[in-house]
Amino acid sequence: MKKLNLKIKDMPYAAEEALNRLRVNIKFCGKNTKKIVITSSVPNEGKSTVSVRLWKLLSEAGFPTVLVDVDLRKSELQKKYQVEGIKEGLNHFLSGLAEYEDVVYETNIPNGHIVPVTTLLENPSALLEDPRLGELLDRLAEDYRYVIIDTPPLDNISDGALIASMSDGAVLVVRCGETSKALVRQSLQQLDRVGCPVLGTVLNRAEIRSGAYKKYYGRYGKKYGDYYGAYYGGNTTEKKAGIKE
């Protein structure tokens, strides 16, 4: 199996702990929850960072986990994590130009594999509607404990909802103070319409202002700045510097 190296920088302690709680919450979703979509309402809410970090933590915890990059319009994985050596990816598989073994890569993360994107497309809807995508996700779910799926936002294209319909559940990333309640409500309704259970919502870039939580993390706040806020259906926070699309 071909191998890729991802250069993933360390995160501040508080951020790592926040994502660890997200990882634990995912574990309690049950053994039948394997294909998990990470999505958002609009771009630049942090869904790709959450996808990669959750994939990494699950893998390092001993769970065979594969990250599937399905954002064929605006994938930033290669550039952001300095991934080199990708020859065939999801777009090749969906086009029938590559097989399963050609597009699943081992990585430098223990137990972590990835299905990357190689070429961005202006209109990938026809490819995403091909039965090969569902077949790929089903086979990955047989081979791995978790399949983390980084999708396009749900805003004005059907790609994200289509992919969510093939999954066992979704985590919606919401940028605090930027994404309107109406947009969040619309995204939740979209997921409901396609029959995708919402496992939780990561509230991103939420400043902790008071209470025991602030007291506990106060010593980190001086060094790293504001924190991220809550996990609907569990508990998590995220560090401001660590969440960028």
Automatic annotation (TrEMBL):
<dbReference type="InterPro" id="IPR025669">
    <property type="entry name" value="AAA_dom"/>
</dbReference>
<keyword id="KW-0808">Transferase</keyword>
<dbReference type="InterPro" id="IPR027417">
    <property type="entry name" value="P-loop_NTPase"/>
</dbReference>
<keyword id="KW-0067">ATP-binding</keyword>
<keyword id="KW-0829">Tyrosine-protein kinase</keyword>
<dbReference type="Pfam" id="PF13614">
    <property type="entry name" value="AAA_31"/>
</dbReference>
<dbReference type="InterPro" id="IPR050445">
    <property type="entry name" value="Bact_polysacc_biosynth/exp"/>
</dbReference>
<protein>
    <recommendedName>
        <fullName>non-specific protein-tyrosine kinase</fullName>
        <ecNumber>2.7.10.2</ecNumber>
    </recommendedName>
</protein>
<keyword id="KW-0418">Kinase</keyword>
<feature type="domain" description="AAA">
    <location>
        <begin position="36"/>
        <end position="192"/>
    </location>
</feature>
<dbReference type="InterPro" id="IPR005702">
    <property type="entry name" value="Wzc-like_C"/>
</dbReference>
<dbReference type="GO" id="GO:0005524">
    <property type="term" value="F:ATP binding"/>
</dbReference>
<comment type="similarity">
    <text>Belongs to the CpsD/CapB family.</text>
</comment>
<dbReference type="GO" id="GO:0004715">
    <property type="term" value="F:non-membrane spanning protein tyrosine kinase activity"/>
</dbReference>
<dbReference type="GO" id="GO:0005886">
    <property type="term" value="C:plasma membrane"/>
</dbReference>
<keyword id="KW-0547">Nucleotide-binding</keyword>
